[in-house]
Amino acid sequence: MARAPLSLKARAIGLLAQREHSRTELRRKLLRIEQQRIRLAALAAADRIGEGVKPVADDDALASPIETDVDALLDTLAADGYLSESRFVESRVHARAGRFGTQRIQQELAQHGLRLDAEQQDALRSTELERAREVWLRRFGPEPAMEPTEQARQTRFLMARGFAADIVRRVLRRSKN
């Protein structure tokens, strides 16, 4: 006997139990899950009737009621404390700070529609030199780059990780001393 499918709320809580999600990210996942569930139910109903597989209703026709339900669920989850944007920001900063610079972390949060507050920005900026040096050491080792092409490669690497140009220069200068 097949188990009954999980409710949308149960799926949302399951996703949040795995890790923190931003509201935007969780909304996108829940909309995709719900649209897929509706399509499968429509296909199963069409097969049971014996009509064969017919095209399912347009995604646009399904979108409006589903979006309303998902938005209401997200409001409920936020009110109950399951969904917290501040917890998401803290967890994302904690997970990324050891590998990326402040600019990259801010860019990633902006993709979720979120920003660092002033205190978090100051904390990240105050440790950025140390973090850049650790990333540089893990990748390139303690030996300084003597060749201009190697210095350029290391500079591009650190810049791509979101470290500020002045921090990158300081890290590479310190490595020569």
Number of strands: 0
Sheet with the most strands?
none
What series of H and E elements makes up the topology?
Answer: HHHHHHHH
Low-confidence stretches: none
- Helix-residue proportion: over 70%
How many domains? Answer: 2
**Average pLDDT:** 89
Overall outline: elongated
- How many helices? The count is 8
Beta-strand portion reads: under 5%
Spatial separation of the terminal alpha carbons:
70 Å
Radius of gyration (CA) equals: 24 Å
How would you classify the helix and strand content by structural class?
Answer: mainly alpha
Quaternary structure type: single chain
Please describe the structure with a list of short key phrases separated by commas or semicolons.
mainly alpha; 177 residues; 2 domains; elongated
What does this structure look like?
It is a single chain. With 177 residues, the chain is an all-alpha fold. The chain folds into 2 domains: 8-83, no CATH class; 102-176, no CATH class. It has helices at residues 8-18, 23-49, 59-79, 85-96, 102-111, 118-140, 148-160, 165-176. α1 (8-18) crosses α2 (23-49). It is elongated, with a radius of gyration of 24 Å. The mean pLDDT is 89.
